[in-house]
Structures are given as C-alpha cells and as structure tokens.
C-alpha cells in the first residue's frame, strides 16, 4: 500500500483536505510546503502538458530538485508523447535525489488555464496513482514507491476551489484503493 501525503501550505486547502479525507487512514495532510516533509519517496507535479515547471508548486519542485529534472521531464515528453503529454497521463522519473527518488508529472492542464468545472484534478490524480502502481509492479522491493506527496492538484493556476480539489482527489484515491473487479 502507498502512503498518501497531501501537502497544503494554504490554510483553506489544508482545511478542505482534512475535512474531506478525515475518514481515510492511509492519508496524511501536512499544512506546509512539500520541502518541509522529511520523508517521502515520490513527489507529484501537476504541471502542464509541456513540462514547463516555472510557476507555483512546480517552481518549488525545480528549485528543490534542480533544473536538470525539468530538462529530463521535457526530454521524456519529447520521446514518449511527441512533445505534449496529455492530461490524464502520468509517468515516473528518477529525481537524482536519494532521499526523494521519484517525480510523477501528471498534468492537470494542457497550458496554464482555469480548469474549474472540469474533472482534470481527478484525471491527473488517478493517472499519477496508476503510474506509481504500474512502476511498483516491476520495481525491485528496495526501489518501490511507498510514500507519495501530492500538492493540491489544480488549485493554483487552475483556480479549482479547495473543496472541489479535495473531493476529486479523494474520489481518485478511493477508486485506487478499492479497484473495480468487474466492468458492467
């Protein structure tokens, strides 16, 4: 099982996460920037389809891990997505940091824009969780992702209100931890 850590330095977002995720044991809400969390294996980036990581949480990710990570994310996007990673997709990439080994780019938007009223937060959260699950299926035991930090997906530039962010992220998490056994 993956431990989910929700990083919410904005008080309204932290409160929404705490209220919406109150009954979920595997989830921890941290009312602080991700950089203050001492232990985690993986960070999720809610960037955009072109890997431009120069604003909001993504700028903090670039500052924390270095510009080399953004360059490698963009090289992966060029190779695997012909330069434009669709919303609703995600991949795992090594950060080069032995304490926080992985990043999962999971765009909530194609380009910076308001996404309120869409299900992009759900899609990005779901795709990030699936990318981690699929990575873990083939990873050696000592390389598996056991803890992942998510920012408030779509809350910044996307202007999705805190309660909507929390509800969409919780739905993705519940669908992930309780997978369908049949499709009808």
**Mean pLDDT across residues:** 96
| Overall CATH architecture | 3-Layer(aba) Sandwich
For the record, what CATH class applies?
Alpha Beta
Count of helical regions = 5
**Spatial order of the strands forming the largest sheet:** 2-1-6-3-5-4
Describe the structure.
This protein is α/β, with parallel strands linked by helices and 184 residues long. It has a single domain (3-177), classed as Leucine Aminopeptidase, subunit E, domain 1, CATH 3.40.220. It is 38% helix and 12% strand. The chain contains five helices and six strands; from the N terminus they run βαββααββαβα. The longest helix has 19 residues, at 120-138. 41% of the residues are buried.
Summarize this structure as a short list of keywords or feature phrases.
184 residues; alpha/beta; Leucine Aminopeptidase, subunit E, domain 1; 5 helices; globular
Task: Provide the fold topology.
Layout (H helix, E strand, L loop, with lengths): L2 E5 L3 H10 L6 E4 L11 E4 L10 H10 L1 H15 L11 E2 L7 E4 L14 H19 L8 E4 L11 H16 L7
Parallel strand pairs: 1-2, 1-6, 3-5, 3-6
Antiparallel strand pairs: 4-5
Helix pairs in contact: 1-5, 4-5
Question: What would you say about this model in short?
Answer:
The chain is of the alpha/beta class.
């Amino acid at each position: 099982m993956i431990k989910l850590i929700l990083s919410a330095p904005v008080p309204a977002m932290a409160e929404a996460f705490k209220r919406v995720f109150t009954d979920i044991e595997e989830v921890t809400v941290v009312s602080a920037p991700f950089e203050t969390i001492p232990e985690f294996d993986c960070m999720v980036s809610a960037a955009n389809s072109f890997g431009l990581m120069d604003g909001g949480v993504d700028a903090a990710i670039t500052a924390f891990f270095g510009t080399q990570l953004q360059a490698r994310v963009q090289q992966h996007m060029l190779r695997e997505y012909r330069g434009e990673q669709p919303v609703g997709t995600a991949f795992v990439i090594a950060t080069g940091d032995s304490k926080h080994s992985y990043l999962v780019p999971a765009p909530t938007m194609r380009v910076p824009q308001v996404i309120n009223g869409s299900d992009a937060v759900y899609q990005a959260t779901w795709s990030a969780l699936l990318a981690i699950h699929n990575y873990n299926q083939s990873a050696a035991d000592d390389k598996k992702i056991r803890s992942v930090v998510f920012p408030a997906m779509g809350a910044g530039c996307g202007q999705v209100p805190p309660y909507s962010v929390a509800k969409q992220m919780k739905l993705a998490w519940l669908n992930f931890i309780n997978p369908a056994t049949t499709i009808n």
